[in-house]
């Protein structure tokens, strides 16, 4: 898909660094397509991209260790530019006849490197010395023939090396992380000055090519999609709708555990505003009756996932002959599921998406966002005209409020939670803290009652916990330092406006050891 926009991109070979995904993001931010491949991927798989150059990522091993991943022969034989980063630099050195050995002083963290003034084009536009992020235990001791040092630090005589004639470069530091403030300039120089890439990777190009690809794949067949209201499924729906119009039917299942006003907003946006063929199913009763008496979090998740698939399948069957199932899978999901199949890769996070995939229907998958990062999905969403509150919607778990309604999930408790949550979210929106300042914020209803006093009356009512976190990757998170007066206003409004709640607490746990959700 999207061959034109991908043309002129680069291939990133993954040697196992935790930063490899970041390299791809940094490259794409320059408007150049980048795709990740395991370092040992078959040459034909990697070269199907017809890359303008190769980037070799960092990695946790030593290049001289038995069985260590090496630079593939086809990369060296290609005559195309190569940039080795950290392990990538060492692997390049090792492969081309230089020497890598354990360093006496390991370099972890910030360092300052002095750049050789005559080392254009990699340093074009950069000052004489820059701050970088180092993370290595081995170092280059002897350069391969043809290479020259391009930069040094106190601990590394070869902080960067290159053989400009062969367009082979290596940097010992990590230009892809924020701690290397001028890293983007280095990557830009490599892409445009060394590889001769063109900035063709834009939302508009992606949209145009996705449309053509979807049309070619679907022909006159019909497509079904599960719309959740989140940005990934929303952008998927919009793209497919643009490509094949009413051949797409989107199914939105309201399981009764959405937030206040959410089901209405989904219908309003996609059906009325954008004219999608949308089947909105109110399945609250089916879900809630199966959840009766259930308090165990895992059991809740399982029941909801299973009921979701059942409901989706039943609706999809009423549509008649459907050939395709569209899904909003994005690149990090693809990378993570690939990582799960590789014994040497570190598992990043466990995925717990709810259903959506019909179990025994014979459908072909369409996943137009398969190669996009989240920020790219948002840019495409904006280019497609989706409203801001969908594009910037905070993540919401598939099982919805069920995992925030601790204890038994009843309609009455859900309503209580919905109202408390809406008050909190409204206050954050007014304070401009929904997009900046919190990555995820919500209310949870606790399965305890506490004593309170209202007027002259003793109350014995439920407790609401407010949770707001800052994070970029959702794997670790810190509790958001919300202003005390904002919390005071929210607390006051909740106990006054939500019957059945007499106490509000703020969750000050980080992840780990807590998780973001309460269940
Ligand atoms: P935790 O609670 O594990 O959550 O720190 C990390 C992120 O994942 C979201 N989450 C889910 N998303 N289905 C989803 O699609 C789920 O079952 C689910 N559980 C948690 C959570 O909201 C947070 O963004």
Beginning-to-end CA distance, first to last residue: 38 Å
Molecules bound to protein: xanthosine-5'-monophosphate
Shape: globular
Number of helical stretches of at least 4 residues? 16
Main sheet overview: 9 strands, mixed
Give the strand line-up of the largest sheet: 2-1-3-4-9-8-7-5-6
Taken as a percent bin, the fraction of beta residues is 15-25%
User: What is the total tally of β strands?
Assistant: 18
Instruction: Give the helix/strand class.
Output: alpha/beta
Query: Radius of gyration over alpha carbons?
Result: 26 Å
Overall pLDDT level: 92
List the topology elements:
Layout: H1 3-6, E1 10-14, H2 20-29, E2 34-38, H3 43-47, E3 53-56, H4 73-77, E4 82-85, H5 87-95, E5 99-115, E6 129-142, E7 148-152, E8 160-163, E9 168-171, H6 183-194, H7 203-218, E10 223-226, H8 231-244, E11 248-254, H9 262-273, E12 278-282, H10 284-291, H11 297-317, E13 324-326, H12 331-341, E14 364-366, H13 374-383, H14 388-391, H15 411-430, E15 440-454, E16 457-470, E17 478-479, H16 484-497, E18 501-506
Parallel strand pairs: 1-2, 1-3, 3-4, 4-9, 10-11, 10-13, 11-12, 13-14, 16-18
Antiparallel strand pairs: 5-6, 5-7, 7-8, 8-9, 15-16, 16-17
Bound molecules: xanthosine-5'-monophosphate (XMP).
Xanthosine-5'-monophosphate is lined by residues 301, 352-354, 395, 397-399, 440, 474, 511, 515-517.
